Amino acid sequence: SAFSNPAFDNHEQVTFCRDAATGLSAIIAIHSTALGPAAGGCRLWSYASDTEALYDVLRLSRGMSYKNAMADLRFGGGKAVILKTADFQGTDALYEKFGDFVDAFHGRYVTAEDVGMSVAVMEKIARRTRFVSGLPKKAGHAGGDPSPKTAFGIFKGIEAAVKFRLGNDTLRGLTVAVQGVGNVGYFLCAYLAKAGARLIVADIDQARINRVVDEFGAKPVALDEILFQDVDVVAPCALGAVLNEQSIPIIKSTIVAGGANNQLQTDADGRRLLEAGILYAPDYVINGGGIINVASEFYGDVDEDEVMNRVAAIGPRLTGIFQEARDSGLPTNEIADNQARRKIAQAKTPTDQN
Ligand code: NAD
What we know:
Elements: E1 13-19, E2 24-32, E3 38-39, E4 42-45, H1 50-70, E5 76-83, H2 92-103, E6 109-110, H3 119-125, H4 147-166, E7 175-179, H5 183-194, E8 198-202, H6 206-216, E9 219-220, E10 233-236, E11 255-256, H7 268-275, E12 279-280, H8 283-286, H9 289-299, H10 304-312, H11 314-328, H12 332-353
Helix pairs in contact: 1-12, 2-3, 4-5, 4-9, 4-11, 5-6, 9-10, 11-12
């Protein structure tokens, strides 16, 4: 059952959405609305089972609560998954139906892009609900594809980690291994190349590799070798659970700082990284740039320059986490989790008293 799923964490609401006419099967999970509407993207993915999809959406939505709290946003945490079943067809009608389901939450859930989604799909969803972000950018306003902002935040986070661990003020001459050069990884490569870093990359999509080889002189390596390169920084920017009992002992880099969600297979892998002498930038802190962009689009309260300032603040925020981890001897993921839980608990207090 949902309640006994290992990723269930007292979620406020979990809704299974099914529309036989379009073939839509989706799950929308609201982890917390303590800090505001539960915001988090929608992932389109082919799952081995419904239980696996449920596990993913529960874990991702809790992650969004923590991510939004750590980015100081007026957002709680939620997430949606659309199940890419064998007969899945991404028709307009299917995405419109998903929009109806989102709308039925009357603003308690706000959706946006995640893996497998695009601005064009968000526009289809927006035909049925206004509780959607990541829509095309309007002149003078924040918005649009969040990936470049996510990448900018990761870039600032890598700079902060490099300063903290290696003492370098710049990335010039350093080498970064980027796993996955899709929406986020591509823009990250652009920032890194501009800063004078050398790039090693891997992706399952040859066209995406070619793009970063041609544009930034990146060196491609095999998929199963990218995390274990002798480099200054490893940046996982594909999918989750890549940091685990098997991979951590053979990672050569002393910094792991990338954009993928849920990089740790289990919470205990944070301690494994610490014990292996690897400085880990907690994923939901370093990859908060996209949701900062989404929040400014949704609330319409700040311009593009201010969004960039807020995203750049990810650098000093991570430095604070690194310092607290060093002083306490705790892993960085535990420091971040504790900070996020405190923020959510503080926000809950007034409502609970009412
Ligand atoms: P994307 O689908 O555009 O890119 C992912 C890339 O990884 C693709 O090019 C894919 O081919 C590649 N890939 C998949 N499996 C791989 C493997 N085993 N080895 C190497 N490459 C592999 O997705 P994205 O939007 O760039 O997101 C990447 C990650 O960042 C995801 O974990 C996502 O949840 C996270 N994230 C994205 C955003 C955003 O703004 N898009 C924000 C926060 C977090």
